[in-house]
Amino acid sequence: MNSLSTILIVVGLFLLGGMISFAKQGLPKGVIVLLGIGCAMCLVAGVMRLEVWA
Question: What are the tens digits of pLDDT across the range 34-52?
């Protein structure tokens, strides 16, 4: 596991927490969807950069 994959996974989890928080506060759905897309992209990129398959 390199540092970039760790950073991407941490940022993805941070965005997930923000998405949950914004949903509880009742913010507009567009903001929540945007955070969800960013969260998914960070988590997928972080997992794909893991070097467990090599």
Answer: 999 999 999 999 999 887 7
Distance CA 42, CA 38 (A): 6
User: Coil, strand or helix: which one is 1?
Assistant: coil
Q: How far is CA 27 from the centre of its chain?
A: 19
For residues 22 and 33, the answer to whether their CB atoms sit within 8 Å is no
φ and ψ of 2, to 5 deg = -95, 175
Q: Which of 47, 34, 39 is nearest to 12 (CA)?
A: 39
- Residue 24's identity, in one-letter code, is K
